[in-house]
Structure formats: structure tokens, C-alpha cells
């Protein structure tokens, strides 16, 4: 759906934000699992959602500002809250996401996907202020479950309540690195053979690398089909995979 004027959005837009977006036509973006409204113009993105404690756009704004010192991510152009909604306006990164490239060249897409994740996990983490370790995520998972924010269709053999108890009782030792938090093909953009940027970084922070690896392997198979894991590992460079951690973080991701 197209919105030629901010006054036609399905929510009131703050006056100062209207001044920044009035001259553009906005298209609603339906791709993704976020609970936010997402709109795209030629050079900007606008996210809007109801104010909530989990996955807040205010926190995403803070992460973008910090990550921008280390990685190519969208620039923050505006943030505000009004009438129970929060609004985040960012620049739009040029290029195509890797799910588009995978249609034409799956091998190249997988290689770039793995190399780009290695870049995240190789950055120094001493000054990262965003804790996404298990000790932080488990209480968030319980809050999300109590608030009805967890998709329970993925819990076929065990209830989410029982699964959460199992996760709380079997926390693995963590190898903390800077993680993206939602590392999948549509969130990595390339242009002219070069990395142009990363998007949807609201869950970024210090976490075990398997937080990203679990999603990365799922996205690789989803976008390219089976049999590309070896290519991924060649480029990422991990000598030994921990299947127990993959299972653990895959289960934990089911709450987010």
C-alpha cells in the first residue's frame, strides 16, 4: 500500500517528523517478522510501533548510533514518541539484500553471508554496552511468554513453559561476541560486489556466536536449499561446531 502523505498513515504522526517525510511517497513493507509497521521511501525507512518494553525502537536507535562507529548500518535521522507510539526514521542503505542475490548465484550469496557474519564476530567487544547474553534473554523470554508475544506454533513436542524451564536449567558456557541478533539473508545488503550495510539490528549485542550461527544456518537453507553448510563454514572459519549450543540457541530464539 502506498502513502503519498504522512497524514494518511494509520496513526497520528508527530509534527516534527511530518516535516521530514512530507515530500515523499511511502510504501508499506510486509517482509519480516517484526511487530512494527515498516515503510520505505527512496532514501529513507520509517519504523513505527506501539511503545513496549521488548524490542523498543528507542533501544534500536541507541544501537544504531553505537554500531555506526564500527559497521555500515543505517543512520538515525529522527526518533520520537507520541500517543503510545514510537517512530524511528533512518537512512536507506543502497544495494540488494542477499536473498535477491541468492536467486542468481547461491554460492556467492552464501560466501558473502558467512564473511559478513565473521566481520561482526571479529570486532572488539570491550566497550559494547548491549548485553544479549543468556542471563539477559531468559528473563525477556519469560516476559514475552507472559505477555502473549511468543508464537506457540513452533512448540510441537513440549510446551513453551516447559521448554523455558529446560533452558533456564541448562545454560551453556558462552563465548561472547558482537552478534547481529537476527542474522538472515534479507538483513545483509551488497552493491557492486561490496558489502553496503546491515539492517534490522534491534537485537544486536553481546551474545554467544551461536545466537547468530543458528539463524544463519536456517537462513542459508531457507534461501539456498540444503547442502550449502560446508561453503558457509569454509568462509566463516569455525573449526568445530557445537551442536548442543545450536540446539540451545535455536530453542531460545523461538521466544523472540
TrEMBL record:
<dbReference type="InterPro" id="IPR024165">
    <property type="entry name" value="Kan/Strep_kinase"/>
</dbReference>
<comment type="similarity">
    <text>Belongs to the aminoglycoside phosphotransferase family.</text>
</comment>
<dbReference type="InterPro" id="IPR002575">
    <property type="entry name" value="Aminoglycoside_PTrfase"/>
</dbReference>
<keyword id="KW-0808">Transferase</keyword>
<feature type="domain" description="Aminoglycoside phosphotransferase">
    <location>
        <begin position="42"/>
        <end position="246"/>
    </location>
</feature>
<dbReference type="InterPro" id="IPR051678">
    <property type="entry name" value="AGP_Transferase"/>
</dbReference>
<keyword id="KW-0046">Antibiotic resistance</keyword>
<protein>
    <submittedName>
        <fullName>Aminoglycoside phosphotransferase APH(3')</fullName>
    </submittedName>
</protein>
<dbReference type="Pfam" id="PF01636">
    <property type="entry name" value="APH"/>
</dbReference>
<keyword id="KW-0547">Nucleotide-binding</keyword>
<keyword id="KW-0418">Kinase</keyword>
<dbReference type="InterPro" id="IPR011009">
    <property type="entry name" value="Kinase-like_dom_sf"/>
</dbReference>
<keyword id="KW-0067">ATP-binding</keyword>
Amino acid at each position: 500500500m502506498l502513502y503519498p502523505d504522512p497524514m494518511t498513515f494509520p496513526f497520528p504522526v508527530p509534527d516534527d517528523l511530518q516535516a521530514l517525510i512530507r515530500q515523499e511517497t511511502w510504501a508499506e513493507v510486509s517482509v519480516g517478522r517484526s511487530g512494527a509497521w515498516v515503510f520505505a521511501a527512496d532514501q529513507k525507512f520509517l519504523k513505527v510501533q506501539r511503545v513496549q518494553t521488548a524490542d523498543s525502537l528507542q533501544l534500536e536507535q541507541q544501537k544504531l548510533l553505537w554500531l555506526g562507529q564500527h559497521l555500515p548500518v543505517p543512520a538515525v535521522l529522527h526518533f520520537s514518541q507520541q500517543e503510545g507510539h514510537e517512530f524511528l526514521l533512518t537512512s536507506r542503505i543502497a544495494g540488494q539484500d542477499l536473498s535477491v542475490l541468492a536467486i542468481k548465484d547461491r554460492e556467492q550469496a552464501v560466501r558473502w553471508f558467512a564473511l559478513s557474519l565473521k566481520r561482526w564476530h571479529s570486532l572488539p567487544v570491550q566497550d559494547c554496552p548491549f548485553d544479549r547474553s543468556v542471563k539477559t534473554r531468559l528473563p525477556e523470554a519469560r516476559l514475552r511468554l507472559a505477555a502473549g508475544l511468543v508464537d506457540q506454533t513452533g512448540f510441537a513436542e513440549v510446551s513453551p513453559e516447559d521448554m523455558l524451564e529446560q533452558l533456564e536449567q541448562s545454560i551453556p558456557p558462552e563465548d561472547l561476541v558482537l552478534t547481529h541478533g537476527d542474522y538472515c539473508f534479507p538483513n545483509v545488503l551488497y552493491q557492486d560486489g561490496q558489502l553496503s550495510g546491515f539492517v534490522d539490528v534491534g537485537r544486536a549485542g553481546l551474545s554467544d556466536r551461536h545466537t547468530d550461527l543458528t539463524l544463519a544456518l536456517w537462513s542459508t537453507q531457507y534461501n539456498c536449499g540444503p547442502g550449502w553448510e560446508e561453503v558457509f563454514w569454509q568462509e566463516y572459519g569455525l573449526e568445530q561446531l557445537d551442536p548442543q549450543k545450536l540446539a540451545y540457541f535455536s530453542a531460545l530464539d523461538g521466544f523472540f
